[in-house]
């Protein structure tokens, strides 16, 4: 009898240990419950209601642009951020969830000789997407690198870095000095056929989709439940950034003068104008907004409105005058499709986004 009890205790202990080991996971699948919202889920599982945008961004294909578009039973894929959440089905073992050592992107030095290979260009200072200080040069740099490796063009390829972003499209691409540049947003060409980018470039399949958010000063709350709520507001949008999303879907905020735009040169200037009361809102993608607010130390004063202005794709651009334009686009798209089919795309995106939201 004593041996039976000991055997039972031993079996139970093994079972408990196995269950504990299974529970020691990070991230995974969360099933939406009655009464849930993204902020409720974020507060419960990440202990930070502000992480609702991380959940939204990672499930944009299911949720769509409106964050309140949740249905009971919807399965959301949650990233592992600072070791949370734990114990969800499909999570990553905690021991494997730690960020990898940051690896610099591969940079091929120039020689001055003409090289018959596919040349792509990007630039720094666009976390978490492109920056040589980021792991493998950032999320989109790694995706483009891996997509081109998968496509394996016979002539080879190289990614170059030019931090003068204004030179990429009108100079480097138009003059044929490089073949492709990334990342750039694609305007709604079906309603803006005369837009410079629509007229001049071919677009790859989207590398990623970002939420364009409106940030407000929490001491001066702003409501954005419907498009009409924006009428009469003053928005700050950095000079050089597109504004097509302010007119699409029949909004015509800019076209019809429904909003006033301020266009300073720097993101920091927009946020300073916001806290000075010179503008009502700052429009910027959630990643650039989060990084700027953190750098400026304005986290207690500025917050994103819960309804995004739009969801915008980030693409690789190829000049239509390039005699191989369609071939180059198809090569990149072919590699990108392979990454998605094998799950490599999801792995790469998850690692970079987890690191960004962890503040690392």
UniProtKB/TrEMBL annotation:
List residues of the LysM domain: 28-78
Which keywords annotate this record?
Answer: Signal
Q: What is this protein called?
A: Transporter substrate-binding domain-containing protein
What is the native source organism of this protein?
Gemmobacter denitrificans
Keyword Translocase in the entry? The reply is no
The reply on keyword Signal is yes
The signal peptide annotation in the UniProt record is 1-23
């Amino acid at each position: 009898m004593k041996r039976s009890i000991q055997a039972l205790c031993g079996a139970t202990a093994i079972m408990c240990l196995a269950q504990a080991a299974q529970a020691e996971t990070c991230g995974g699948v969360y099933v939406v419950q009655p009464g849930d919202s993204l902020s409720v889920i974020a507060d419960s599982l990440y202990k930070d209601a502000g992480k609702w945008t991380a959940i939204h961004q990672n499930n944009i294909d299911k949720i769509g642009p409106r964050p309140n578009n949740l249905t009971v039973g919807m399965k959301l894929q949650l990233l592992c951020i600072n070791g949370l959440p734990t114990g969800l089905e499909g999570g990553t073992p905690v021991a494997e969830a730690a960020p990898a050592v940051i690896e610099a992107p591969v940079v091929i030095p120039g020689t001055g000789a003409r090289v018959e290979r596919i040349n792509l260009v990007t630039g720094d200072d666009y976390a978490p997407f492109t920056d040589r200080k980021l792991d493998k040069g950032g999320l989109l740099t790694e995706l483009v690198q891996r997509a081109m490796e998968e496509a394996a063009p016979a002539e080879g390829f190289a990614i170059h870095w030019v931090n003068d972003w204004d030179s990429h499209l009108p100079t480097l691409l138009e003059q044929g000095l490089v073949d492709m540049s990334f990342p750039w947003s694609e305007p709604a060409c079906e309603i803006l056929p005369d837009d410079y980018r629509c007229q001049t470039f071919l677009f790859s399949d989207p590398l990623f989709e970002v939420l364009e958010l409106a940030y407000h000063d929490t001491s001066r709350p702003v409501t954005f439940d419907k498009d009409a709520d924006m009428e009469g507001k003053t928005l700050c949008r950095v000079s050089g950034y597109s504004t097509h999303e302010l007119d699409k879907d029949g909004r015509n905020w800019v076209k019809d003068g429904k909003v006033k735009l301020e266009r300073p040169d720097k993101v920091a200037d927009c946020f300073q104008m916001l806290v000075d009361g010179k503008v009502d809102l700052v429009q910027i993608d959630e990643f650039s907004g989060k990084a700027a607010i953190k750098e400026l130390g304005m986290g207690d004063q500025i917050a994103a409105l819960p309804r995004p202005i739009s969801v915008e794709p980030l693409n690789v651009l190829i000049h239509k005058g390039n005699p191989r334009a369609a071939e180059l686009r198809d090569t990149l798209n072919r590699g990108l499709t392979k990454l998605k089919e094998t799950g490599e795309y999801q792995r790469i995106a998850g690692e970079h986004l987890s690191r960004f939201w962890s503040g690392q």
